[in-house]
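Dear Dr. H.,

I hope your travels went smoothly. While you were away I took the liberty of generating a structure for the chain from your last submission, since the lab meeting agenda had it listed for discussion. I wanted you to have the full record in hand beforehand rather than looking at slides cold. The sequence, exactly as received, is reproduced here:
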Amino acid sequence: MANKVIPVYLITGFLESGKTSFIQETLSDPGFHAGERTLVLLCEEGEVELDTSAFPTKDIFIETIDSQEELNAPHLASLAAKYNINRVVLEYNGMWLLDKLYGAFPEDWAVYQEVMFVDGSTFLEYNANMRQLMVDKLTSADPVIFNRVKPDFDKMLFHKTVRGISRDCHIVYEYRDGRIEPDEIEDPLPFDINAPVVEIGDDDFAYFYRDISEDLMKYSGKTVRFRGIVVSEDSFPKGTVAVGRQLMICCADDIAYRAFATETKIADQLETGMWVIVTAKIVIEKNALYQGKGPVLKNAGISYSSRPERPVATF
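The corresponding predicted structure, in token form, is as follows:
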């Protein structure tokens, strides 16, 4: 019989972003409890401490994680067994990457909800100076809550920054006066997907690649045109090359080539590193360049091109 899954409520954000206050409010709410035994894991120490006297139940057990080395499956499983817990509330250290945490979970632990808190007064500064850590948390968070925002803050800038990393997470703004406002800005694509030929500008390739990755069938049968770099290898199927761009999400360390299988009559004339403009119809089918089905550019018309002003595609 399979073990019962232990849900993890993961709270992320940088120091003094409001994580502990949220945990305090949540655990103090009688409606959050229905007899569960809860393990609270605190991975950093801020100015605010949990007031256990406000908790409506004694079945809440607090443990401190002082270093990343303590995040390992045997140790976490031993804590779960020690208190015979039914769920976990985990306040994560904002300076630690999440991959370390996900890889440390026991097999029967699973993230049920991941909430990120961001101090709106320091968000842009943190995003500029600690971009990798910010992207690491925003990528999987839902929702992200910006607190302490001023009435005149640049909502569109906050919105675009988040949407450049995650299309799906909910965004909530909490003003200094306590007023809460959900983000309701619509996100139209920067190109016309219903045009006879969907023109993907040089600055729009990252959005195109993300959108087709998230909603593949939406592009089935569409004709697209974009500029990209050719990769040609002997191991590719005959008449097939890859055409794509170097894509950066957060920083230089994560730049990676992202491309599409492209079938063309002039495949043998194309060499790796060439810049081309490709016009082709997208067909969703299996191809050796993918692990299963993917977007294949069929009967591609290809013309040689110069290198764009910004060769690395970004959001």
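Two observations you may find useful: The chain is about 20% helix and 30% strand. The mean pLDDT is 92.

With kind regards,
E. W.
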